[in-house]
Amino acid sequence: MPYIVMLRPTATIEFEVPERDGLDYFNEDAARLLPEGHELIDIDRKRGVAIARSTETKAVTVDRIEDAFTCAPEGWQALSVRPA
Q1: Which domain of life is it from (predicted)?
Q2: pTM, whole model, 2 decimals?
Q3: Digit-coded pLDDT (tens) for 3-56
Q4: Parent domain of 48
């Protein structure tokens, strides 16, 4: 039985967030400056940066469930496995 494995990239990006008074303002600015197609995964107010990763996903079909653990190319990780 074939299986569909959903993959996403593991790479992250950092982007600068201007310093403002208060953590709430910093968080709001980080969310506002978030590049399209990315999700916020961490903020570092001390360094003035936010860290994000791509929301891109792709599906790969494998023949055996065991192949789901090794089908992700370098820089990608498996998110889920389901029967095709």
Answers
A1: Bacteria
A2: 0.79
A3: 999 999 999 999 999 988 888 899 999 999 999 999 999 999 999 999 999 999
A4: 3-83
